[in-house]
């Protein structure tokens, strides 16, 4: 998404708050995609390379 580390961390915290997750809990790729509206296929392709 072209975010600096600090921005990405704040965005992750925003997603966790929205999903009512605790700090130690992870956000799945599916949850990230549902929150952002991105297609999971596109996100996975970016992660894998």
**Which shape, going by the Cα principal axes?**
globular
Number of helices: 3
The description of the largest β-sheet is: none
Q: How much strand content do the residues show?
A: under 5%
Please trace the helix and strand order, writing H or E for each element: HHH
Structural class: mainly alpha
- Overall helicity: 55-70%
Weakly predicted, low-confidence segments: none
Count of distinct structural domains: 1
DSSP, total strands: 0
Mean pLDDT over the full residue set: 93
What radius of gyration results from the CA coordinates? 11 Å
The end-to-end distance, rounded to whole angstroms, is 14 Å
Protein traits:
mainly alpha; 49 residues; globular; 0% strand
Short description:
It is built from three helices and no strands. The chain is mainly alpha-helical and 49 residues long.
Question: How would you characterize this protein structure?
Answer:
The mean pLDDT is 93. The protein is globular, with a radius of gyration of 11 Å. The longest helix is centred in the N-terminal third of the chain and has 14 residues, at 5-18. It has one domain. The protein has helices spanning 5-18, 29-36, 40-48. The chain is mostly helical and 49 residues long. The protein contains three helices and no strands.
């Amino acid at each position: 998404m072209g975010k600096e580390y600090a921005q990405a961390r704040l965005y992750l915290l925003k997603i966790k708050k929205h999903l009512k997750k605790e700090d130690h809990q992870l956000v799945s790729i599916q949850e990230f995609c549902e929150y952002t509206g991105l297609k999971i296929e596109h996100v996975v392709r970016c992660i894998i390379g």
